[in-house]
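User: Show me an example of a complex going from sequences to structure tokens.

Assistant: Sure. Here are the input components:
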Amino acid sequence: MEVVSSVRTPLVTGAKTVGDVTQDICERVEAKPAKSWFLAIAISLCFLAVGIYSLYVTLWEGIGVWGLNKTIGWAWDITNFVWWVGIGHAGTLISAILLLFRQKWRMSINRAAEAMTIFAVICAAIFPLVHMGRLWLGFYWVLPLPNTFGSLWVNFNSPLLWDVFAITTYFTVSLVFWYIGLIPDFATIRDRAKNKISAAIYGALSFGWTGAAKDWSRYETVSLILAGLATPLVLSVHTIVSFDFATSIIPGWHTTIFPPYFVAGAVFSGFAMVLTLMLITRKVYKLEDYITIQHIENMNIIIIVTGSIVGIAYLTELFMAWYSGVSYEQYAFLNRATGPYWWAYATMMTCNVVSPQLFWFKKIRTSLWATFALSIVVNIGMWFERFVIIVTSLHRDFLPSSWAMFYPTFYDVGDYLFTFGFFFTAFFLFAKFFPVINMAEVKGIIKSNTSSQKALK
Amino acid sequence: MTTGTNYILGVYGDDDAALKAVKQIRAAGVKVHEVYSPFPIHGIDEALGYKRSRLPRAAFMFGTLGLILALTMQFWMLGYDWQMIIGGKNYASLPPFIPVTFELTVLLSALGMVATFMIASDLKPYKKARIFDIRITDDKHVVAIDLASNNALAKEEISSIVAQSGAEEVNEKIFE
């Protein structure tokens, strides 16, 4: 018997019973999709269609269709890659790190956040894959496969190769973690299925789950250990992404604070994306009793913390550039703030450093509209952060004769749209056909939760 | 006598009631086949006399395997099979191999443990679930008692023990 303090705000409101949880979540899966859902998926598919055309041209013609030039060899592609990987980080933080810290408020948001992680990592992976040019030969370039050149092996000293291993492992482990959590909930849908087709599909997806105590015991062990493995994993992923830059000698990239700063930035943008999507899902699916203001406030507090870490990192970079006495380093930062890309730097500073500080006001961090608006602002800011780091560090290199500017082409934008189309299509399909809230976990806290609500009355 | 396996089921609406019932039923000398519930009941493992899962050991062993494989692969490929000078450094040294080693350790540990779990619990896509009560995955907790393993007691006796343990319903289930 678990005792929860009556002072603590209940995690699930509306005096729900265990049966109500099943009913509330399953009926979204069983009911015919709403008109708003069709509209949402139609818009996503339009983005996807434009994106597919753009990606097709990029693959057919080569990456020359992008706006890259001799000076700026990385621009939107890697910006988008880092941005999407970062967005994925919130899902693992919620499901793994908050599980280890026994934060029960994670339970009603972890399923959707993990789904976002998986879709975001797929979106991220598209950019380095396309950037390889001849993607169909890429397997030999990035995986240690025997080949007819010797075998000439991959270079294990390269951070780009570490990235391949980090992203692949991260994707696989996240997918497995997510799926293990889904099995008991698929069994619930299977046992409620009205027709043969859905019974067969959810039956196969549920892997023959019966809810036996022995299986639950193993399930809990597996969840705990996967959380323990995913925690250092998620920290390693963005650390290694930052190594792509930090191990180079480019002024503006050659920085030892990159790993922690990138991880904080990733969690920051990830929580912003979780908020954007969860506020919509909560409204459309009427999940106000499961995703309460308390959940939103907690996520906003994480945004203040990580946003402030990012802000400190920006200031530390500026200080180190000055303090190092290296003229190239100093110029790189002066050029960032006052050069031709000052507007990108200003956007980044405003969106990432100033805007999250508004969440110190309780009124703002408990307001749905303010949270929704700021969550989008944060993600715009985080996109610009990567753009600033990548493009402004490259565009004025050591030879003034090769200084250049980057102008995106239709295909730069189109390939980015592809990932948006894919991400939202995948998310809407998930929200329709999968249980958006982890029913089994939420059922486990219902009793202690309702007794604390009774004590309040 | 009916053919197949015959079970007596105690249905409970609450996890603590099911936990208490399991202790009572086992104290009365009845062997419990298994308890089925919509979410994990804390303390049920001890009440049923289950040993701690050995899955952490599986995870550790698969992780160690990943670590050894990753290090062997990298040192063999770059240090022995095709030596190359990259950036004027040694052919093979440990520090740059750590990221890949870490990732492969985590990957094999996670996949190996999950595969062990799937095999141990016999979970697979084409498996037909052995459903004792359709409401288990909704909100009911079921204590199942296999009659064949309780030969010493009559069916009626077991039913009355289950009923006294606070069951909302006492049902019978026959698997052909």
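The lines above are the inputs; the final block is the predicted structure for all two components together. The mean pLDDT of chain B is 87.
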